[in-house]
Amino acid sequence: MDCVSSSAFGCSGGKGRGGGGGGGGGRRRRRSRLYGVCLFFCLCFSAAVAGPATRPPPPVYASSPTKGDIDSSLYYPADASCLMAAIKTATTAILSQRQSRAATLLRLVFHDCMTKGGGCDASILKPAEINNPVNDGLSKVVDIITAVRKQAATQCGVLPTLADTIARAAAAAVSFSGLGDVVASGFKLGRRDVAPSQTGDNPATLPNENQPLDDILNSFASFGLSVQESTVWSIGGHSIGEAGCIHFTNRLNTSGGAGSCLPPVDPTLDPVLACKLAATCAAGAKGANFDFVTPKVLDVTYFQLLLKKQGLLKSDQAFAGNARTAAYIQLYANSPGQFAADFLAAYVKVSLFNINGPTTAPPTQYYFP
């Protein structure tokens, strides 16, 4: 509609009756005011018809992404930046109310990324994988991933992949627990999700506390982690969180029954701690904190506890007594800054394991909603 020439809004540009003379100025002022009102309504009407700004088409996804490398075709740069910040903000807000879930998110990314044959592809959310006994307890944070993803998508107008949401949310948990932001260490978004046709990975391929340390190190090495990286990642990751009694009672001597305090079966376990753990589990507790000094802070305390034979798991304590790893336990126990830098670097490396491989698929939805 040409509002300027529309007489329906009193916007006619022609002369009014009795033009000229003393009344002409008043009529001109009235016409000017009417013109201004008309223009205002015209602009509002045009904006309403036009609707929101037109969005560009979704990105053209790479036809053959490189396995192990970030797929930069998944997001426009500005959208990636928005999602990076939004996922962290949403995760931090949730953890401020549910602090214990920080450790679970860190475990979630570990179990998603380090199953052989898979990688950081969100396959951990597949029913066959998340419900496996090895992943017991991880279902407690599925609602967090769902909520964070929706909040980030609502804020940015773009739907992040589940794999990116998991990796970034767990990184936010690391920052929430006392370390820096992994973005400064090179963390980026660009992980495709596992294809819908896939059923998930086999959690039995994950390292476990009953394996000899050399086997655990070999497992980490198969993903490209050095002995030092394996040490900082494995022991540093146990700086927060807890383990169920079932994972360490084989180190204890419970033959005397409830209330007894006998030397532990495992000579590498501090006898005083062994008695406390036995009493804790006998009282009905489900588990115990790895780090009983600063259990909610990612720091070097657990390394220091290992030097006192106070590691919770036998496999953790083995790091302090093995010729290949003992020096690194000593290093990090006395170097908080070195630990922080190396742990964040290891996190970035782990978050790239086998990403965008042949079992993943490009997103089917970009914009949200």
Topology:
Layout: H1 24-50, H2 77-95, H3 101-113, H4 127-130, H5 142-156, H6 162-176, E1 193-194, H7 213-221, H8 227-237, E2 242-244, H9 271-282, E3 287-289, H10 301-306, H11 314-321, H12 326-333, H13 336-350, E4 360-361
Antiparallel strand pairs: 1-4, 2-3
Helix pairs in contact: 2-5, 2-6, 3-6, 8-13
Main attributes?
hydrogen peroxide; transmembrane; two-stranded antiparallel ribbon; 13 helices; two-stranded antiparallel sheet; elongated; transmembrane helix; Peroxidase, domain 1; Peroxidase, domain 2; Haem_peroxidase_sf; disordered N terminus; 4 strands
Radius of gyration: 30 Å
Mean pLDDT: 88
Number of strands: 4
Number of helices: 13
Beta-strand share of residues: under 5%
Name the strands of the widest sheet in spatial order. 1-4
- Tell me about the largest β-sheet: 2 strands, antiparallel
Determine the N-to-C terminus distance: 32 Å
Give the proportion of residues in helices: 40-55%
Classify the oligomer.
Answer: single chain
Query: Architecture of the largest domain, CATH level 2?
Result: Orthogonal Bundle
The run of helices and strands is HHHHHHEHHEHEHHHHE
What coarse outline follows from CA principal-axis ratios?
A: elongated
Find the CATH topology of the largest domain: Peroxidase, domain 2
